[in-house]
Amino acid sequence: MLLTMKQDESPYYTHLRELNLSPGWARPEPSMWPSPQPKFRPAVWRFADAKKALDASHNMVPADQTERRNLIMVNPIEGNTYATTRHLVAAYQCVMPGDRARTHRHSAAALRLVLQGKEGVYTIVNGTRIDMLPGEVLLTPAFCWHGHANETGETGYWIDFLDIPFIQLTEAMFFEPYPQGGLEAITSEGPTPMRIPSREALGGGTDAKTVEIAKGIMPTIALNLIRQPKGGRIETPKSTANTIYAVVSGKARVTAEGFDETAGVGDVIAMPCWHAHTIEAPQDTVVFKVTDEPIFEKLGLARTAN
Ligand SMILES: [Fe+2]
């Protein structure tokens, strides 16, 4: 029932508002519905566009804020200024030659998919130097110290994925700059579980294969590498999880109701919850899939439907 103007202005309803009470029999909108009604929508971002814009940011980012030289992929729905999907945000980021991004840590979990980099473009995670090479996934779980540097003559580019929108929702937000300031000292350069090369994770061959990586390391985010040979096709039913895809190699055509986009290397597609969708590979392709599925599994809310 919706209140008429006359009822709404009556002393009874005016008094309720003064008490910060709202009549359950006359809500302005429903508080429950039969199945998910995602507000976010499928969307695509192109690495080539973002790269050009990042390159043009050269003189725009103050030297002490190089960790913020990124372009956030904002889902184009009304009122949204930040999130890519309900719980995750993705951003294109670069480190230019000579950049040193200050070490810090936070309660949000983060990871990177490297698009362009070479030895000398590196992240330091809890003291371990990890060089950023294309196709590698680097993890910075919650509260891990991390900073970046570029000692080469070429800009390094990657895609950041973080659960910041979820942490904002929970209000359990913490952020801390490195107490000594600047970039954390390197204490180790050895192998680390925080570095996952996609090619090694998938093994040899070009056959269809999906590998979950970093399983259980981040409590809110699941990561999968999906390999499809030319002509391959994956159908994904409606799910309560929200997904972000990024193309590691090849090309992926992603279709959903009202959405049909072909993504190349470094392009990103957001696929919100409750959207059945199909991924087709017009050539041998590897796609990186980032989802908030663990949140729903832990809360008993993981559901799928056709
Ligand atoms: Fe960070």
Describe the protein:
The strands form five sheets. Strands 1-20-17-22-14-13 form a six-stranded antiparallel sheet. A six-stranded antiparallel sheet has the order 2-3-10-5-8-12. A five-stranded antiparallel sheet has the order 7-6-9-4-11, with no helix packed on it. The chain folds into two domains: 43-198, Jelly Rolls, CATH 2.60.120.10; 201-305, Jelly Rolls, CATH 2.60.120.10. With 306 residues, it is mainly beta. The model has no long low-confidence stretch (mean pLDDT 95). Helices cover 13% and strands 36% of the residues. It has six helices and 23 strands. The structure holds fe (ii) ion. The site of fe (ii) ion (FE2) has 4 residues, from strand 4.
Topology (elements, then pairings):
Layout: H1 5-8, H2 11-18, E1 43-45, H3 47-55, E2 70-72, E3 89-95, E4 100-106, E5 110-116, E6 121-125, E7 128-131, E8 136-140, E9 146-150, E10 156-162, H4 164-170, E11 175-177, E12 195-197, H5 198-202, E13 209-213, E14 222-228, E15 233-236, E16 238-239, E17 243-249, E18 252-256, E19 259-263, E20 268-271, E21 277-280, E22 285-291, H6 293-298, E23 304-305
Antiparallel strand pairs: 1-20, 2-3, 3-10, 4-9, 4-11, 5-8, 5-10, 6-7, 6-9, 8-12, 13-14, 14-22, 15-21, 16-23, 17-20, 17-22, 18-19, 18-21
Bound molecules: fe (ii) ion.
